[in-house]
Amino acid sequence: MQEIDWDKISFNYTKTNAVIVSHYKDGSWSPARKETSFNFGYNPFAEVFHYATSCFEGLKAFRGADGEVRLFRPDENAKRMKRSADFLDMPSPSEEMFIEMCVECVKENIDFLPPYGHGASMYIRPVLIGMNPQIALVPSNECDFAVMCSPVGSYSGNKGLKSVNAAISRNYDRAAPNGSGSYKVSANYPASFRPYRIAHSEGYKELLFLNPSTKRNIDEFGSSNFFAIKGNSFITPLSDSVLPSITNKSLQVVAGDMGLDVEKRVIPVEELDSVQEVAACGTAVVITPISYIDDKPTVEGKEVTKTYRFFPDGLVGPVSQKLYERILGYQFGEIADDHGWCLKI
User: Do 193 and 187 meet the contact criterion of CB atoms below 8 Å apart?
Assistant: First the structure.
């Protein structure tokens, strides 16, 4: 095994020991097997290459303060993968199979699970891949379900919480109305590559997408869900084109535990003027606080910049900080898991 500096680990791929794979054909799944080769072979006519018949999940394993290894809410990831697979009309693993293969993946790669105290974790990526060779536009009837992992640090590259800036995407949509936006299908993600490259070239770290039908209401960031703190309320968008984030779902429960009112509703862009904190949230980022958001709509042929400010660059709102610490407390076994969210392995 390669030497890893756990204090400097980033959110990048690190080769591990093995991938756990099961193959679906003729109506049944094969027994899960360990693959130490990371080079899978597929027919060039495999459907995934032509029609993007693929969906995936992201979850994490943590080495806790008590030495125990925990998976955070894997049952929710299993349910969400089934939902995505059903949308693609593909077979999906059962919840039991999904969790068992995730656990096996962690065990086979346990040397790559970061030690407690470095703020790092093991990112687990289950992927469902349509692999039968064909040209016709019909669903996949043969596929692989593969579970792989990689040790990761902070998604933003920061240790702890630091706020970053963001811009609103006016010229690009993340998803189509009544489309696949609320499903974790692989084809959703490339749509944000170009607008992110443009945003990064203009000095922005994050990109906030609006609802695709009217471009008047907030949907989500390209990397993860949106939430804001407004007075004593935790507010997050209600939209048919937003991915149901497991982290956001957990934060809503934690916010309620902290005495906040939880509102899942339509959020007009202009409401950013009256909120105190804004953040992106998801498995990879956990929480990324936002310092300010620039909106640059075109009015009468001219680009007009409106800036919504929350905290100076790098600083974090008190509620976001508490929410972050509470979620990590569950994940690293620092506080009692009173919601039963963690699976010890």
Answer: no
- On whether both 209 and 296 belong to a single domain, the answer is yes
Q: How far apart are CA 199 and CA 201, in angstroms?
A: 5
Q: Is the pTM of this model over 0.85?
A: yes
Instruction: Please identify every residue annotated as catalytic.
Output: 184
Tens-place pLDDT, residues 125-141: 999 999 999 999 999 99
User: Does residue 216 share a domain with residue 238?
Assistant: yes
Q: Are strands 225-230 and 277-282 parallel, antiparallel or unpaired?
A: antiparallel
Same domain for 23 and 139?
A: yes
Q: Checking DSSP bridges between strand 164-169 and strand 286-295, what pairing results, if any?
A: parallel
Residue with tokens 């006519």, as numbered in its chain: 45
Structure tokens at 297: 């709509």
Dist CA 106 CA 35 (whole Å) = 14
Q: Which helix (H) or strand (E) holds 40?
A: none
pLDDT tens track for 225-248: 999 999 999 999 999 999 999 999
Measure the CA angle with vertex 227, ends 273 and 311; round to 5°: 50
As a 3-state breakdown, the chain gives helix, strand, coil percent values, each rounded to 5, of 25, 30, 45
Query: Encoding tokens for residue 329?
Result: 């407390």
286 inside domain: yes
List, in sequence order, every residue forming a beta bridge with 21; answer none if it has no partner.
Answer: 33, 146
Residue spans of the chain under pLDDT 70 = 1-2, 156-159, 298-301
Q: What is the pLDDT of residues 244-288, one digit of tens each?
A: 999 999 999 999 999 999 999 999 999 999 999 999 999 988 999
121 inside domain: yes
